[in-house]
Amino acid sequence: MNNFIKNSKIFILLIFLLCLYIFISAYSYVTLVANDLQESVFRLHVIANSDSKEDQNLKYEVRDNLIQYMNSICNNVSSKEAAIETVSNHLNDFTNIANKTIQENGFSYDANVEIGNFNFPTKSYADISFPSGYYDALKVKIGKAEGQNWWCVLYPALCFVDVTSGVVPDESKEELQDNLTSEEYQLISESNHPTINFKFKLIEFFTQKNLITAKNQ
C-alpha cells in the first residue's frame, strides 16, 4: 500500500512537471513569435469622434488623406525604423492634413496625432492576420474619439489592400517575409491550416491574458 501511494505521488509529480514544461515551452514560443510580429510592423489607428454616420464618413476621409500622404513620403522606405523616423519628421504635416480634412468637411473638431506603442486587438487585412498585442503605431484621434476605430498597417503597406480581390500586394508580403521566420509568416498568412490556426489561437490566448494582466496592474 505504501509503495502504491509513493508511486502515485511520483506519477502525479511527473504529470505536473510535464504540464509545467509544456506551459513554459508554449509561453516561450508565444512570447518570441509575438515580439517578432510586433517588431515587424508600423500600424495606423484612426478613431472617429462618434458613431454617427457623418463622423464615421469623416474618419474614412481622414484615413484616405493620411494614407495618401504616407505613401508619398515613404515610397522608398525599406524598414520599419525608417518608416517611423520619416513619419516622426513629418508629424506636424500629418496633424495639419487631418485638421484640414476635418475643416473641409464642415466640422470644427481637432485631431490629435501621435506615435506610440498601443494595444491592438486581433485584426485581419485581407489574407494577412495579426494577433492582439502592443504595436508601434500612428494614432489619430478625431474630436472626442468616442467612435468606432479603424486599423491598418502603414509599414509594410497593408493599408493599400485591393479590397475588390481581398489580396495583400506581393511587395508588402515580401517585406513581411524578410522580417519574419518562415513559420511566423505562415502563422499570419495561412489561417486555414489546422496546425497553423491552433498556434495562432495559442498566441491570441497568451497575448490577451497578458493584456488583461497589464491593464489591471
Structure in words:
- With about 220 residues, this protein is α+β, with helices and mostly antiparallel strands.
- The chain has one domain.
- The chain has 7 helices and 6 strands.
- It has helices at about 1-40, 55-75, 80-90, 90-105, 170-180, 180-190, 195-215, and strands spanning about 40-45, 110-120, 125, 130, 135-140, 150-155.
- The strands form 2 sheets. The chain has a 4-stranded mixed beta sheet.
- Helix 1 crosses helix 7.
- The chain is elongated.
- The protein starts with a helix and ends with a helix.
- Mean pLDDT is about 80; it is low at about 210-215.
Provide the descriptors you would attach to this structure in a database record:
elongated, alpha+beta, 18% strand, four-stranded mixed beta sheet, 217 residues, disordered C terminus
